[in-house]
Design brief:
- InterPro entries: NAD(P)-bd_dom_sf, Polysac_CapD-like, Polysaccharide_Synthase-Rel, SAM-dependent_MTases_sf.
- Belongs to the polysaccharide synthase family.
- Keywords: Membrane, Transmembrane, Transmembrane helix.
- Pfam families: Polysacc_synt_2 (PF02719).
- This is Polysaccharide biosynthesis protein.
- By secondary structure, the chain is α/β, with parallel strands linked by helices.
- The protein is built from 22 helices and 23 strands.
- The chain has a nine-stranded mixed β-sheet, with helices on both faces.
- β12, α17 and β13 form a beta-alpha-beta unit.
- α2 runs antiparallel to α5, α11 crosses α19 and α12 packs across α19.
- The longest helix has 28 residues.
- The radius of gyration is 35 Å and the shape is elongated.
């Protein structure tokens, strides 16, 4: 029977629901007047005089406008909070007072006397009938699980005004049903906030099982990064999806707020402290200058471009070999209309094309992000990695020097430190090429700055392990790791772009800047945390059934157990930015780079991979910075 009633109510248009509710209230208030007289005179059929009929009809005429004004017909009964009883009491009190005024005027005209107890009975009975009906409908609609069949039960972590605002925004918006709020403050436990019960998060395992909760949304924008990380860690292994909302203090539109719910990003769990970018450094290097980015369609290059256009340079030159990637980033940036954006299709190994792009547009600063960077692929295609990463860098740096570009910035990698793979070795060569070019500019007294910026893994970049793990989790696993004990540095792609540009503003020529990456992350822990954040359990010896397995595949050729950012910690100097360190460039070693490049070029031209590898690593062995004794 209840299921039938629920189906009828849910299928009604909103207009008819309100009309029926108004009709019920009219009947309930007239009934309340009759019952008040019946109670006063202790008879079931009090005498119906003209005055009593008039007062009975006046009751809904007076009350309905008040009910409308106080929002009794705007509320969705399924989600009617317990605190709505106060609104109903307020509405009935106002309606009763106005009704008493009509009674008083009637008595003044000599049309009869109303017993003093009748208004009190009317208030009590009217409140019971009007409020009781609403809460009865709520019970019918929420009978059973407390939600519709297509709704998913969720908790909101946080018991603030923002949390209540979010819960309110979710009503009727999507298929989430808010079971309650979670808060660590014991003073809040068991209380109702905005109509939602506040629970102790320590009881989450039991609550999840009791209510069948599938998702927890974090509304914790005011918490510090460390505290937020602790909360995420505490609930990430409970088999529920964890999502979050941004800082909502500036958001007004509830529907917009509901649309901001997103998945927790892994960098939030890593808990890196965030330092806002320095606008002085960004403006100094970018404003009113023509900027060129090689590899503009790649993950790092495209993020650099998105940052650069915000500072309204004179023009932005997108240099990219991949036609589709160039098309996509060009379309995106053109739509902003912030500055002229010029796409250039070409390879960094094609000197004439690089020179044309630089000369034609009079480039002031060049960010060299173009590179082959996927370690296993470059290891399997060593000659191509050498040609692109080393000869391409040499070509771009040579043209930049000859065309008197003011600032040249190489995007390097932590894998360039004591490299054990071809990709890392090519990046170290690229750093040495740039430093030798800086030394040449210094000797000639030129005001040209050549520098490199070195950092670790970027979350979400092309070839990064994080997108791979996400894809594997979405496919039901297993998540593959080569060695769970490997440790890597990670930062967000947005932070990397901001720090690269700020580092370039600090360059004095010949610098290698080191971006502070925080603590290295164990890859096995990263994989398990991502599985838990997706709402799954980790299948292991303790949990052999269900969940997603982390499968160890074995280390690949050239992989290191630990990555390093420094050759020598004592050689790293602080800069004015707390996240940027500078390697001491006061004594740049002069290596026989030209001869080594000629030998490497000859080996590559003859496709002699063994000889190319030998030259690649033997030359790095001549680098005094590569001394293994320097830890």
């Amino acid at each position: 029977m209840l299921h039938f009633l629920r189906h009828i109510i849910e299928s009604m248009p909103r207009f008819w629901k309100r009309l029926i509710l108004i009709g019920y209230d009219c009947a309930a208030l007239i009934t309340a007047i009759w019952a008040s007289y019946a109670l006063r005179y202790a008879v079931w059929d009090p005498v119906l005089t003209d005055e009593r009929i008039f007062l009975a009809l006046a009751a809904p005429i007076i009350a309905i406008p008040i009910f409308i004004r106080l929002g009794l017909y705007r509320a969705v009964l399924r989600y009617l909070p317990d605190t709505a009883i106060w609104t109903i009491l307020q509405a009935m009190a106002a309606a009763t007072m106005l009704w008493i005024l009509v009674v008083f005027m009637l008595e003044m005209s000599g049309r009869g006397v109303v017993p003093r107890s009748v208004p009190f009975f009317y208030f009590a009975i009217g409140t019971t009938l009007v409020g009781g009906f609403r809460f009865a409908v709520k019970v019918i609609l929420n009978q059973g699980t407390g939600m519709r069949r297509d709704e998913h039960p969720i908790f909101i972590y946080g018991a603030s005004a923002s949390s209540v605002q979010l819960a309110t925004a979710l009503r009727g918006n999507g298929n989430r049903y808010v079971v309650g709020l979670l808060d660590e403050d014991p003073n809040h436990h068991g209380r109702d906030l905005g109509g939602y019960r506040v629970y102790n998060p320590a009881n989450l395992p039991k609550l999840i099982d009791q209510y069948g909760v599938e998702e927890i949304i974090l509304s914790l924008s005011s918490l510090s990064a460390d505290r937020r990380k602790s909360v995420i860690s505490s609930i990430s292994g409970l088999g529920v999806k964890i999502r979050t909302v941004p800082d909502i203090t500036d958001l007004v539109d509830g529907r917009y707020l509901a649309n901001q719910i997103r998945e927790i990003e892994i960098d939030e769990l890593l808990g890196r402290s965030f330092v806002p970018p320095d606008p002085k450094l960004l403006g100094k290097i970018l404003e009113d200058r023509t900027v060129m980015v090689t590899g503009a369609g790649g993950s790092i290059g495209s993020e650099l471009c998105r940052l650069i256009v915000q500072w309204k340079p004179k023009a932005l030159i997108l240099f990219e070999a991949n036609e589709y990637a160039l098309y996509m980033i060009d379309q995106e940036l053109q739509a902003t209309g912030r500055c002229p954006v010029i796409p250039v299709l070409g390879s960094i190994t094609h000197e004439a094309r690089v020179r044309d792009a630089i000369c034609q547009h009079k480039v002031d600063i060049l960010y060299h992000a173009a590179a082959h960077k996927h370690v296993p692929l470059v290891e399997a295609n060593a000659i191509e990695g050498i040609e692109n990463n080393i000869f391409g860098t040499a070509t771009v740096a040579k043209v930049a020097f000859e065309e008197n570009i003011a600032d040249f910035v190489l995007i390097s990698s932590d894998k360039a430190v004591r490299p054990t793979n071809v990709m890392g070795a090519t990046k170290r060569w690229a750093e040495l090429i740039v430093r030798q070019m800086a030394l040449k500019a210094r000797e000639l007294g030129r005001e040209q700055n050549f520098c490199a910026v070195r950092f670790g893994n970027v979350l979400g970049s092309n070839g990064s392990v994080v997108p791979l793990f996400k894809k594997q989790i979405a496919n039901g696993g297993p998540v593959t790791v080569t060695n769970p004990d490997m440790r890597r540095y990670f930062m967000s792609i947005q932070e990397a772009a901001e720090l690269i540009v700020q580092a370039s503003a600090l360059s004095q020529g010949g610098d290698i800047f080191l971006l502070e990456m925080g603590e290295p992350v164990r890859i096995g822990d990263l994989a398990e945390n991502m599985i838990r954040l997706a709402g799954f359990a980790v299948r292991d010896a303790r949990n052999p059934v269900g969940g997603i397995e982390v499968k160890v595949t074995g280390s690949r050729p050239g992989e290191k157990l630990f990555e390093e950012l420094f050759y020598d910690m004592a050689n790293a100097m602080k800069t004015e930015h707390p996240k940027i360190l500078r390697a001491d460039s006061s004594a740049i070693a002069k290596l026989p780079l030209k001869e080594a490049l000629d030998d490497l070029c000859d080996a590559a031209r003859h496709r002699d991979e063994d000889k190319a590898r030998d030259i690649l690593f033997s030359f790095i062995g001549m680098d005094p910075d590569n001394d293994p004794a320097k830890a």
